[in-house]
Specification:
5-stranded mixed β-sheet; disordered N terminus
């Protein structure tokens, strides 16, 4: 049974997804059709420091062209609420989709960068707290830009309005990520642009 849960499932030649989160990852990927030919592996990890998920290029990808890069999205097997451990795969589906969407936002950010820029980005992420803020907000922005705002908002609501989640974790979310109000503003701006584009087509 355990083997079935964590056995990777190859959805196509480019994406490796654990069976346990196949539905959520597939839904999130539908918002990023440009990733159809991009190598992305979704992998469970026992523990990720200060995070539930983490998207990163493989080491060799720092020296490859955009089309040949490979990415890994690490997913912590468990997370804690009020000192009690829960399995990440048991989170409500929409909330998990929002989390995955944010990580795919990171991948979109990485794909926009050339080799030198991607290397410099990695160095700054390790050394600068301000750059972490910039990177996490950018990931939220890209996910919203792709139309995942409803999922991203559900994930933030789960964290920020859950009385059992520690205040320190909520403070981290508020410090590094876009607020729900900022996301709604982005949605309004996106909708205005879409309306204007449609009007110009007529």
């Amino acid at each position: 049974m355990i083997m079935a849960i964590f056995m990777p499932l190859m959805t196509n030649a480019q994406h490796i997804i654990p069976e346990a989160i196949k539905k959520e990852v597939t839904t999130a990927l539908e918002y990023f059709p440009q990733f159809e030919s991009i190598n992305i592996e979704f992998r469970f990890k026992r523990n990720i420091k200060k995070s539930t998920m983490q998207a990163r290029p493989t080491f060799g990808s720092f020296f490859r062209s955009r089309k040949n890069r490979r990415y890994v999205i690490l997913i912590s097997e468990k997370f804690k609420i009020a000192g009690e451990e829960f399995k990440t795969r048991d989170i409500a589906s929409d909330i998990l989709i929002g989390w995955i969407g944010h990580e795919l936002g990171h991948v979109m950010d990485y794909q926009d960068r050339n080799k030198l820029n991607l290397i410099w980005f990695g160095i700054k992420y390790l050394l600068s707290d301000n750059h972490i803020v910039e990177a996490e907000r950018a990931a939220d922005y890209f996910a919203v830009k792709q139309g995942m705002d409803s999922y991203i908002l559900k994930t933030k609501d789960f964290i920020l309005n859950n009385a059992q989640i520690t205040q320190s974790y909520k403070d981290r979310i508020q410090k590094y990520y876009l607020s729900p109000e900022e996301i709604m503003h982005l949605v309004e701006e996106r909708n205005k642009e879409e309306t204007l584009t449609e009007a110009l087509k007529k």
